[in-house]
Structure formats: structure tokens, C-alpha cells
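2024-03-11 09:14:02 INFO queue: dequeued item Efflux RND transporter periplasmic adaptor subunit, len=359
2024-03-11 09:14:02 INFO validating residues
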Amino acid sequence: MKKYIYLLTLTVTAFFVTSCGSEDKKAVEDNSPAIVVKTSDVETNSNSPFLAVSGKIQAANSADLSTRMMGYVNKVHVNVGDRVRKGQLLVSINNADLQAKRAQVNAGITEATAAFNNAQKDYNRFKNLFAENSASQKEMDDMTANFEMAKARLESANQMKNEVNAQFTYSNITAPFSGTITSKNVEAGNMANPGVPLISIETPGTFEVMAMVPETEISEIKNGTNVDVLVKSINQTIKGKVSELSTSAKNTGGQYLVKIDLDKTDANILSGMFTTVQFPVERKAKSAMVLVPTEALVTNGQLSGVYTPSESNTALLRWLRLGRTFGDQVEVLSGLNADEAYIVSAEGKLYNGAKISVQ
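2024-03-11 09:14:37 INFO prediction written
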């Protein structure tokens, strides 16, 4: 009888566990409705035979101003956007220690000047005595040496004054040229450190473009080549001319730096605007360019990607490496192939793994 009771207990326990497992599976089953989405095939662009690269506008005359001394900032005399003239005071740094050092140097100059004048008188007197055979050669040599040492000490004191005056120029930061203040990285009371930019200034009106050209194309570009520069933010094309060509890509990852001087224009361009530079050079690389619209991109910090439909009808987030921008489209360097599709719109909030229904 005990054996039958034991078997009955095991059967009930197994039935209970099986039932609970079935209930758990039913509980996690996703019954949410599928999100209706629209997809589009990847576009390719291989029609343009000319080389086009991305670039960035910057002022032809610009400077980041810093100091060679450490000290607290007493006052910042300008704000971002202010127009300043050459030599205008921009930042004042506390220089109490320099003032004390200059006072010491001035006292040293006074002392060295008095000693020099006295040594010069003794030298002239002994020079006359030596000419009259009233002083020995040894006495004349001693007076000459004393005079030369006094002269050297006076020169040293004057050079120390020049050094202190040079240090004062680093406590008062002035504009090296007339222009506009573009950034201010310090406020009154902050500590100024050597080499750290405090103020940035540039001369508006004259601009240049810095572009990176791949190693497969750089040999075809020459100094003085005329180019077309499309400024994307204002959708205008400006003429330019190649002014500098880098001969090394050691620190630029296989890309060669090319500088282009822009022609004078009435277009409202500013430093930092992105451009597309088109060279009158036939592209050697004939591979098709993969393009996606910028409105389809999903961003997370510095990452950019798109949602693509998976074989199981779920949304799959694909992170991309992007290249140049062409109007409302951006080039995809990796992460998406030319024979794939991506989601352009959805009637709900997409997330990685969400059920979708392609319309």
C-alpha cells in the first residue's frame, strides 16, 4: 500500500510542475500587435564620374590665444561676438609677482649703474696715470677687469628687465589682429594655465575649406585646381581654388589634407559649416555609393543607425558608419549593403526586436 501512495504522490507532483511550466510559457508569450512599418530599398549613386569629398569651412586668419604663465584671471574684457582691433586688451591675469620682480630688477639696475659709473671713473683715472708711467701694469689690468665686470653686470640687469617686460605681455592678453571673438573659455577668477586656450579670434570675410582626400585620388589633384564647394546648410555652391596639398597621411588614417581658398562671395557662410568639395577629377574608385535619408537615422550619442526588417518580422537595429552628406541623404560606409531594405516610418515606437508588419 505504501508503494501505491508513493507513486501517486510522484504523479501529482509531476502534473503540478508540468502545469506550472505551461502557465509560465503562456505568461511570457508576446501577444502585442505588430507595428505597421514602411520600408525602402537602399539607394545607390554611381552616376557622378567626378571626385567629391567632405570638407569644413574655417576662417583663413584665426588664432587661439593662451598664456605662458600661471595665474588667476582678474578680468575678461570681451564677449563672444565682439569685434576687436589689433592690440586691444582681451584678458588680464594677476601679475602681482611680476610687479615685485620688476621692482627688484629696477633696484638691481640702479645698483649696477652706480657700480659701473664708479668703475668707469677709476678706469679713466688709472688710464691717464698709466700713460704718465704713474701706475703699474698690474694696477692698470686690475682696473680694466673691474670696469669690464661692472659693465657686464649692468648689461645683465638690463636683460633681466627685458625678460620681466616680456612676461608682462603674457599677463595681458591682447588681440594679435583685428577680428571677431569666436569663443571665450575663461571667466574672472579662473586659473589660467600655460598653453590652454583662453580666447579664440578670427577675421571674418576670408574663408578656406579643409578637406580630406583618399589616397586613391590624391595623385590627380594639383595645386591651383579650381573646384566647386557646396555649402550644405545654405544650399549654395561657391568657387574655390586648391592652395595647399599635404604629402603625408601619417596621422590622418590614409586621408590627405587639402586646403581650398574660397572666392569672395555674398553668401552667408560661417566657420564650422560642412561642405562637399567637387574636384574636376574622374573618380578611380567605381564602386556604388550607398545612400539613406537622414530622417531614417536613429541616433544614440555618437552612434547612428537604422532599423531593418528581420526574417522573423521584427525590427533589427543596425549601427552604421556614415560618410559624406548629400542634401537630405547621407553616405553609408559600412553596416548596410546595397541589396537590403530599411524602415523609413512606423505607426508606433520601434525598438530592437519589436514585432512589425511591413505595409
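2024-03-11 09:14:37 INFO annotate: The longest helix spans residues 96-131.
2024-03-11 09:14:38 INFO item closed
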